[in-house]
Amino acid sequence: MSGRLYVISGPSGAGKSTIIHHVMKEIPDLGYSVSHTTRQPRENEVDGQDYHFVDKQTFQRMIREGDFLEWAQVYDDLYGTSLSGLHRRLDMNMDVILDVDVQGAGNVRRKFEDAVLTFLLPPSLEVLEKRLRNRATESENAFRNRTEKALLEIRESRDYDYIVFNDELRDGVKRVVSIILAERCRSRLLFPKAVEIFRIP
Ligand code: ADP
Ligand code: 5GP
Q1: Domain count along the chain
Q2: Ligand lying nearest the CA atom of residue 16
Q3: Which-ligand-closest: CA of 52?
Q4: Strand partners, 188
C-alpha cells in the first residue's frame, strides 16, 4: 500500500501555498513536497519552506539525473517536484500534498493515476490581481505574465477532480481539508484490510 498524492493547482496568486500551509496544521500527518525553483525568493519567502531555491545549473543537473517527478518552465523560471523524499513518504503510506501549475498537474496524473487533483479558483480576476499586488513588489512584466496565464489556466479547471473556491481563507482551507478527509474515507472503504478493523465481531 502506498500514500496518495494531493495536487493543488490553479493560477499564481490563487492562494495555493497559503492554503497548503494551513491544511498542514489541520492534518499533521500529511507530507508537503516543497518544489524546487530557479526564481528569486520574494521578501518573506524561506528557503526549504516555501521553495528550494536553486540556480539554473543545479536544476538542469537534477533534470539530467532524473530527480524530478515533473518539471515545467513557468513564465521565465523553472519549477519542479523532486522525487527525493516523495517516494520515501509515499512508501511509508504517507499522503503528500504538492503545488504545481496546470501543466504539472497533467504530468502528475499521467504518472499517478489515483492522484487527487484540486484546482484553486480565486473569486474573480480583480481579486486575483489585488492578491498578486499585495503579495510582493514584482516587475510589471512578472505581474502581467501571471494575470495573462490565469485566464488560460481557469479554462483548464474542468479536467480536475475538485474545484475549490478560495474566497475567504478560512472557507478555502476547510474545503481542501474536507476533500482530503473524504478521499481518505473513500479509499479506506475500498481497501479490505481497513474495513476489517471496523468489522463487528
Ligand atoms: P499561490 O501560492 O497560489 O501563488 P499565495 O498563497 O502566495 O498564492 O497567495 C497569494 C496572496 O494572496 C498572498 O499574499 C496570500 O496571503 C493572499 N491570500 C491567499 N488566500 C487568500 C484568501 N482566501 N483571502 C485573502 N488573501 C489570500
Ligand atoms: P510562483 O512564482 O507564483 O510562486 O509560482 C508560479 C507558478 O509555478 C504557480 O502556478 C505554481 O503553481 C507553479 N509551481 C510551483 N511549484 C511547481 C512545481 O513543482 N511544478 C510545476 N509544474 N509548477 C509549479
Answers
A1: 1
A2: 1
A3: 2
A4: none
